[in-house]
């Protein structure tokens, strides 16, 4: 349970940092890179951390 909570906090910090970055530098190519990064992080959070064996 603690691992899941820390993963959620880390994902929130990542999204917050990338949100500030996009707020300061609103460029189309950067938006695409940030979207891909958040998608990879979300995939890791919701699919990797769902398993118990962690691999």
Could you give the topology of this structure?
Elements: H1 2-24, H2 28-48
Helix pairs in contact: 1-2
Characterize the structure shown.
It is built from two helices and no strands. The chain has 55 residues and is mostly helical. It has one domain (2-48). Helix 1 (2-24) packs antiparallel against helix 2. It is elongated, with a radius of gyration of 13 Å.
Q: How do you describe this structure in short?
A:
This protein is an all-alpha fold and 55 residues long.
Q: What is the percent of helical residues?
A: over 70%
Using only C-alpha atoms, the radius of gyration works out to 13 Å
Largest sheet: none
Number of strands: 0
**What is the H-and-E element order?**
HH
Look at the helices and sheets and give the structural class.
mainly alpha
Q: How many structurally independent domains?
A: 1
How many H/I helical runs? Answer: 2
Keywords summarizing the entry:
mainly alpha; elongated; single chain; 55 residues
